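Thread amino acids onto this structure.
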């Protein structure tokens, strides 16, 4: 199939379907109930950048940038960029120990309900079978349909398959290769390195500022048409239940194409008989048309609509590097609770090694989260926010890239969720044998409380309420440093 033929199909599907390529129609689309109930998913950053395993997953850009340590590391380790370019990592990416079933079993044990591999990162190497990109994992490197195998393994374990495409940023991502003697300038590889569009606004020291503006340097119409066709092919071949985009699709030039993409995706999902949504950042979509994602951050209060945080176990990179620093189980569990209490979901990333193995550190964290959720998941899965998200002084600083430091919770900090006549109260730092919760103090015309239990323990706990607080007697200090959850059955 050609790009033009794919574009004709897109128009035909939209013409016949309920959803049209306008915001009014797309905003009538609902967030899937399964997604809102799931709360916790796994993100996977795995690709060619896992081979050099240096600095972060942006190695494909930074190796061509004289201002970055990766540039000098590359010359020292692999040679000059004209002799050994990013494409030359492909034969080294063998994935010889990649076992998708083993991954899926681990993700299931973590308590996750959905899984989102990156199908194509900014580097332009597709991890899936595609007619529109010969540079893919089926043709070269692992010579396997990585995404197809992950999808099959996850669905066999009862996990919902989702997919991420970062193709949009490929328009300029490799452009620093234009500034040096490198293989990016070789016409034989232009279909791999992409336009690698270079201008001073998208150069190394200004790219982040420029790309963050929706009215900045746009891609060409040719690139946008190509992007739309490729993304819809991905949708048709793998039928992801959530489709995730990174940041640059908020550029105004993408708007007409995003409308078509969403209408096509939502109409296809209706044909297939399941519910889907799109993850977006910044102002790529208006509220209601898709699901907002906060990268490595959170919100300060309850959102009226479901939202998501994408974050990572590793602090310094989404992909595997040899010097990754990892978050603790407590750090991630506390963030998960906070996000869910504010009507959000967490998408937690792992970065496998080039051979396909997941690090011992990430494995231990995933199993630790799963162990905690096996006891406390009742207060997480399928819940909605309570009247307020919690109490205490500790809260997040709203916005992106705020997640590497723990929030400093004390025994006075709580988070609340609600389900089926019960409020679930998460005590964020349990270090006493008595619990005092101001939000459930005795007030006139207040709801009755029938019982209080700690999840994982069937015994009812003694409690009293006065005008200042509700006090729960535990008898002893809870063991460990992870939050505990009280199930308060309302009268």
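Threaded sequence (491 positions):
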């Amino acid at each position: 199939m050609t790009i033009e033929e794919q574009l004709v199909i897109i128009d035909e599907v939209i013409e016949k379907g309920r959803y049209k390529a306008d915001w009014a129609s797309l905003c009538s689309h609902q967030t899937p109930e399964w997604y809102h109930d799931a709360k916790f998913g796994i993100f996977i950053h795995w690709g060619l950048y896992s081979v050099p395993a240096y600095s972060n997953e942006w190695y494909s850009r930074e190796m061509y940038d004289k201002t970055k340590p990766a540039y000098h590391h590359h010359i020292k380790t692999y040679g000059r960029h004209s002799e050994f370019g990013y494409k030359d990592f492909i034969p080294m990416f063998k994935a010889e120990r990649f076992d998708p079933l083993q991954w899926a079993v681990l993700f299931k044990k973590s308590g996750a309900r959905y899984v989102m591999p990156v199908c194509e990162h900014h580097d332009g190497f597709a991890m899936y079978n595609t007619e529109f990109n010969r540079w893919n994992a089926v043709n070269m490197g692992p010579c396997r349909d990585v995404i197809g195998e992950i999808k099959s393994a996850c669905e066999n374990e009862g996990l919902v398959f989702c997919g991420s495409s970062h193709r949009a940023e490929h328009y300029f991502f490799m452009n620093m290769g234009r500034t040096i003697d490198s293989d990016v300038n070789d016409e034989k590889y232009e279909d791999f390195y992409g336009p690698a569009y270079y201008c001073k606004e998208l150069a190394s020291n200004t790219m982040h500022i420029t790309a963050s503006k929706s009215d900045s340097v746009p891609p060409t119409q040719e690139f946008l048409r190509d992007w739309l066709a490729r993304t819809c092919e991905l949708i048709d071949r793998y039928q992801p239940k959530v489709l995730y985009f990174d940041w640059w699709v908020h550029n105004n030039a993408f708007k007409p194409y995003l409308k078509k993409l969403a209408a096509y995706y939502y109409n296809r999902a209706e044909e297939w008989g399941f519910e889907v949504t799109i993850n977006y950042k910044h102002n790529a979509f208006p509220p209601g048309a898709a699901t907002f994602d906060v990268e490595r951050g959170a919100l300060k209060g309850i959102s009226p609509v479901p939202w998501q945080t994408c974050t990572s176990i590793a602090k310094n990179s989404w992909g595997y590097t040899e010097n990754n620093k990892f978050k603790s189980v407590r750090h991630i569990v506390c963030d998960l609770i906070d996000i869910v209490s504010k009507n959000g979901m967490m998408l937690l990333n792992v970065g496998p090694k080039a051979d396909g193995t997941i690090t011992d550190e990430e494995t231990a964290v995933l199993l630790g989260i799963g162990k905690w959720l096996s006891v406390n998941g009742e207060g997480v899965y399928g819940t909605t926010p309570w009247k307020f998200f919690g109490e205490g002084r500790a809260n997040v600083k709203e916005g992106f890239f705020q997640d590497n430091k723990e929030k400093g919770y004390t025994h006075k900090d709580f988070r609340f969720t609600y389900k089926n006549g019960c409020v679930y109260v998460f005590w964020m730092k349990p270090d006493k044998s008595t619990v005092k919760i101001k939000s459930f103090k005795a007030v006139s015309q207040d709801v009755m409380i029938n019982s209080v239990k700690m999840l994982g323990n069937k015994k009812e706990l003694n409690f009293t309420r006065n005008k200042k607080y509700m006090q729960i007697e535990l008898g002893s200090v809870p063991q460990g440093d992870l939050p505990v959850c009280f199930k308060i059955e309302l009268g």
